[in-house]
Amino acid sequence: MNLAGPNGWRATREWKDISTKWRLVPDGLRSSRPEDPFARGWVALEAGELGQAEDLFREAVRQRGDGNDYVALGDVFVARRDWSGAADQFERALLVAPLSVLAILGLAMVRAATGAADTAIAELEVLARTRPGDPVVGYYLALALIARTVEVRTEGRGGQLVISTQYQLDTCDWLAGRVLASGTEDAQLIAAAKALQAEVRQGRELVWSEQRPTLVLAGLVLLLGVVPVLLGGLLANVPLLVAGLVLGTGLVFWLFYRYRQPAWQVALGTITGRA
């Protein structure tokens, strides 16, 4: 299986997710011995030849079976989005090399892709404390944090993700901030976090929820509040003046309480059909 040629394959997000962690390994480990099935498997993986890469990495596992061999084989399954197969290989790598950072990153990526981003975040934050400022660890932490923002939001009509509760709003705000503090250098992940922060800020703004009732009630406030105040002043009628002030203030407060809502609630009603 060739994934649209080597250049097209290496431009994909999948390749970046696979290859970023290998920046922690010296290039010579993958290329110094061209007769090594692992080195040849890496060349095939870079070219998007997944079938050939799998065969060669399996041969490397049979001949040597170190942690990196299993991680590379797991990456073939990641490229195919076979998350179960990938997790199995990364777990095997950890059995052989319990401290393998590559295997930890690979397994965290699988968790983030399969609905367990919170677990991935917890594991990666532990790893990040042992490797402060490492942009590779930061990349996978940011990836897991973005995945978690997808998990916590609600899917609206048409499949778009919407913020439907105050908890989701606050959680997305926190997660986006953590992405920006993760140390990742990935422009797309940073842009996604900033866009989510902007969505949260906009969602917190108070807006009018219903235009027509607001106009009607504004007229009522004018009639019952402002007019008595004006008449009370003109007629020097203190009780009428006070009544107008109290009634007008109460109606304005009720008007804002009833029809001013956070923008995320108004948008949710529009998207889901709940007015």
UniProtKB/TrEMBL annotation:
InterPro entries attached to this UniProt entry: TPR-like_helical_dom_sf, TPR_rpt
Transmembrane domains' residue ranges: 214-234, 240-257
TPR repeats: 67-100
Keywords attached to this entry: Membrane, TPR repeat, Transmembrane, Transmembrane helix
Name used for this protein in its record: Uncharacterized protein
Source organism of this protein record: Kutzneria albida DSM 43870
